[in-house]
Design brief:
315 residues, mainly alpha, MetI-like fold
């Protein structure tokens, strides 16, 4: 087990290095840079443009730029944003807490809705309860989270005369104001992703309930509730955990449109702004950060598998 853990941790290094190389090459392959974008349409002499590129290090060979960036990463220095001029670490520190908090709230809401309803749909298969829950989940899959958010904002304004605050307040400063701004986007996103986990819970639990050891437990007189909760649900949750964990990792940087709807300056919005301004340094750092989140989440899920299912052993 220890050898497996060490091996997985070491495997993260070439994985993230591959992501870094791919991101670096793709960004340099796109025509134009931040200097060309800044002076586009302006009668600026070419000497001024060349001098600005030199100051930003954009006139160096690609290999030199990449090794310089890797050297900074090795010293835990993400460099400075070409767009804002601020250190990339500061830009991430400002927006990352908001994205993590929204992802946590949406995931908690999704799990709270998905697992009980998925279990209920499985044990009441083909009943009116099952059909109602399936319609509820299909609605979540059919409606984008940003559209749900727009409907929720218009509904609260029309019925209650209330709209979420436009200025983000950290949880440590004012928990009530913080939750007031994040509760609607958390519901919009959580409902969308609860639909996926709900259907996964139902399908995996139905499959497990047909296993031989479940039939044996029933033949021994074990109560149906105990069969579902103690024998079937634990094994059925393994694929659900994978889905929920990957959704959580995606939510940290993938809610671009939802953040726009609710005026949230999260990591997703920062990445889009960086792409729009051709900010190579910021884009590369954000992509590397999101890749690290995905790798770490997958590693944690593998460790959780061992806890939930003793039959799983890594060597």
């Amino acid at each position: 087990m220890r050898r497996y853990v060490v091996g997985r941790l070491l495997l993260m290094i070439p994985t993230l290095a591959g992501v870094a190389i791919l991101t670096f090459v793709i960004m340099r392959a796109v025509p134009g840079d931040i200097v060309a974008l800044q002076y586009a349409g302006s009668p600026v002499p070419q000497s001024v443009i060349d001098e600005q590129r030199h100051l930003l290090g954009l006139d160096k060979p690609m290999w030199t730029q990449f090794t310089d960036w890797m050297g900074q990463i090795a010293h835990f220095d993400l460099g400075q944003s070409l767009w804002t001029g601020h250190p990339v670490v500061e830009e991430i520190q400002i927006r990352l807490p908001l994205s993590i908090e929204l992802a946590v709230l949406a995931t908690l809401l999704a799990v709270t809705i998905a697992i009980p309803l998925g279990v209920l749909a499985a044990v009441r298969q083909d009943s009116w309860v099952d059909y109602l829950i399936r319609v509820f989940s299909i609605g979540g899959l059919a409606m984008p989270s940003f559209w749900i958010g727009i409907v929720m904002i218009l509904t609260t304004i029309t019925l209650f005369g209330w709209a979420p605050p436009l200025v983000f307040t950290p949880f440590t400063e004012d928990p009530i104001a913080n939750l007031a701004q994040l509760i609607l986007p958390a519901i919009a996103v959580g409902y969308r992703y609860s639909a996926v986990s709900m259907r996964m819970t139902r399908s995996t639990l139905l499959e497990v309930l047909r296993e031989d050891y479940v039939r044996t437990a029933r033949a021994k007189g074990v109560g149906e509730r105990m069969v579902v909760v103690r024998h079937a649900l634990r094994n059925a949750l393994l694929p659900v955990i994978t889905v929920v964990s990957l959704e959580f990792a995606f939510l940290i940087g993938g809610l671009v449109v939802t953040e726009q709807v609710f005026n949230l300056n999260g990591i997703g919005k920062l990445l889009v702004d960086a792409v729009a301004h051709r900010d190579y340094t910021l884009i590369q750092s954000l992509v590397l950060l999101l890749a690290a989140v995905f790798v770490l989440v997958n590693f944690v899920v593998d460790m959780v598998y061992v806890v939930l299912d003793p039959r799983i052993r890594y060597s």
